[in-house]
Amino acid sequence: MTLAVTDQTQQEADRYVHSVYEAVIARNPHEKEFHQAVKEILDSLVPVFARHPRFRESGILERIVEPERVITFRVPWVDDQGTVQVNRGFRVQFNSALGPYKGGIRFHPSVNASIVKFLGFEQIFKNALTGQPIGGGKGGSDFDPKGKSDQEIMRFTQSFMTELFKYIGPDSDVPAGDIGVGAREIGYMFGQYKRIRSSHEAGVLTGKGLGYGGSLARKEATGYGCVYFVGEMLKARGLGFEGKTVVVSGSGNVSIYAMEKARELGAKVVACSDSGGYIYDPNGIDVEAVKQLKEVEYKRISEYVKRHPGSTYTEGCTGIWSIPCDIALPCATQNEIDADAARTLVANGVIAVGEGANMPSTLEAIEVFLEGDVLFGPAKAANAGGVAVSALEMAQNGMRLSWSFEEVDAKLHVIMRNIYESSMRAAEEHGHPGNLLVGANIAGFLRVADAMLVQGIV
Ligand code: NDP
Ligand code: 2IT
Prior knowledge:
By secondary structure, the chain is an alpha/beta fold. It has helices at residues 7-27, 32-51, 53-57, 60-64, 113-129, 150-164, 183-197, 218-235, 253-264, 287-296, 304-307, 339-347, 363-371, 379-382, 385-399, 405-429, 436-454, and strands at residues 69-78, 84-95, 101-107, 135-141, 173-176, 245-248, 268-273, 277-280, 312-315, 327-329, 352-354, 375-377. It binds NADPH dihydro-nicotinamide-adenine-dinucleotide phosphate and (2Z)-2-iminopentanedioic acid. The site of NADPH dihydro-nicotinamide-adenine-dinucleotide phosphate has 24 residues, from helix 9.
């Protein structure tokens, strides 16, 4: 059902939402990624504020854009040469209306307050969309894992947790992985937390190894979930992955398992990348070889072409979007698709874009996709499978049992379908039929806002 609103109410809502956005910019100057994430969501919420004055009366918007807590800390460690190094650690505990703060930890030199706040803000709505009882948070450090020895990674990660442990716990804040943080780093973090706390609290971190409380299918969940979500978008147009050409950026956790599932469903994945450049393999990317390179050997993607005659390597990341494809899955990092890249994809006939990474398309690129009638799966819906299975990992830890791969994968599939359907429904009800960006933002927001409304002004 679409609720009617007058033009005047709509304009008033627009002015109000815009004034909150202006206040965010004034209060958080120079944080351009955070501004971008806030703008994307707030623009979608105008129809909500035009219809539901109660949210405005209780200051939901003013409260939701302000993190409940931002923690910044020093992370000193000693490198292999005996030199003292100092990095900066962050944890943003953004919103706990739905459950304990939940969200990954990123180790990358670009990490700063703006990056963790954009990620934490997105996480609130993504986690709400999963239907699981988890609030939104994010953390990380400007530590660069590239070129570091395993011992250095361990010493840094232990030092990071020696401070972070004060602020987390199975019922308060539950970190996981993100860029630069995979099974190895989660293992070191868990070991240090356990040592300091003298307590085996499995539910304090997710993405753990299978031997000590990890969930089957967590490693695969973000990539598989993204493909399931795009599958729902395609199905609505009577299409599927079978026979489609797919380009997937990145070659990390999300990318690898998106490629694996797309291939399993009959698509041909012809390209992937890392921060150095991209590979093109007209025979279809050998995903097992990428796993070996990235998960086992920690090598560059350029090595792939030495082992695969007929494939090519090109320096630089953005060129990957000039490869003609039916489906594009950006799975590397924020703002990796700008308006030019989006225009190239559209000109080459792309049918669907599924955002495996967080905020991989600029606001201008999203405009290009929507105007070009491309099926667009926004990040907070399309990549929610990872955190959804993290919540399932927490549930299994709480019950001290483990579900089979098939059980978790089936639950993931249902969750992704529900996210698709609830986003489509919210878009339709608020006057933007078929727009999954607006729909996901509204559906996620309404779940959090309803919970905030009944919990008082906190
Ligand atoms: P990984 O560290 O496993 O892989 C990241 C990949 O992206 C690598 O190939 C990396 O290349 C590339 N990359 C990273 N930074 C840049 C950059 N600045 N420019 C170009 N390429 C870059 O991370 P994940 O796969 O876990 O994360 C990928 C994206 O998915 C991120 O946006 C993350 O926030 C998001 N995400 C992750 C989830 C998860 O469960 N892990 C869940 C939901 C979203 P290189 O190795 O050269 O740095
Ligand atoms: O961006 C994300 O959703 C993640 N990095 C996963 C978070 C989690 O807690 O599993």
